[in-house]
Amino acid sequence: FSNYHSPLAPYADVFVEVADKYSLPWQLLPAISMQESTGGKNVPEDCFNPFGWGIHARGTLCFENWQQGIEQVAKGFKEKYIDNGLVTMEQIMKKYNPTSYNRDGSWGNGVQFFLNQIYSFNSL
Fold first, then answer.
1. 54: left (phi > 0), else alpha (psi -120 to 50), else beta?
2. HEC string for the chain
3. Which residue in 32, 41, 85, 87 is a FRET match for 19, CA 20 to 30 A apart?
4. 49-78 pLDDT, tens digit each
């Protein structure tokens, strides 16, 4: 997050704690937030939703602060994806961003790019 001047940088520990709480890979939500909003830099005003979670033609789901957004999306991701066996990038993308899945897979490729960055940084 710091390399991208993301407003989420101070919440890195929250991502890890919440991922542990919901048995998610700690890297997944940060990577999705980077793909969706450059780590929270491009979100609707006062929305605190860096994930694109619940943002669609019918409206925009917003949270009161970053921590609430991280918590709610992690909980939803666990319940709606992981608990239903959606664990690979292809499976996740098919539900999370079906337009990209049906078109060219660019969303999944972008998330994977950020996952790879996190993995390489983490291994230094």
1. left
2. CHHHCCCCHHHHHHHHHHHHHCCCCCCHHHHHHHHHHCCCCCCCCCCCCCCCCCEECCEECCCCCHHHHHHHHHHHHHHHCHHHCCCCHHHHHHHHCHHHHHHCCHHHHHHHHHHHHHHHHHCC
3. 41
4. 999 998 777 778 999 999 999 999 999 999
CA dihedral 67, 71, 73, 77 (to 10 degrees): 150
| CA gap 116, 102 in Å, rounded | 23
| Residue 101 in tokens | 């899945």
Q: How far is CA 29 from CA 17, 38, 77, 102, 104, in A?
A: 12, 12, 9, 22, 22
* pLDDT 10s digits, 10-35: 999 999 999 999 999 999 999 999 99
Give the number of other Cβ atoms within 10 Å of residue 2's Cβ. 10
Residue position matching structure tokens 């033609």: 57
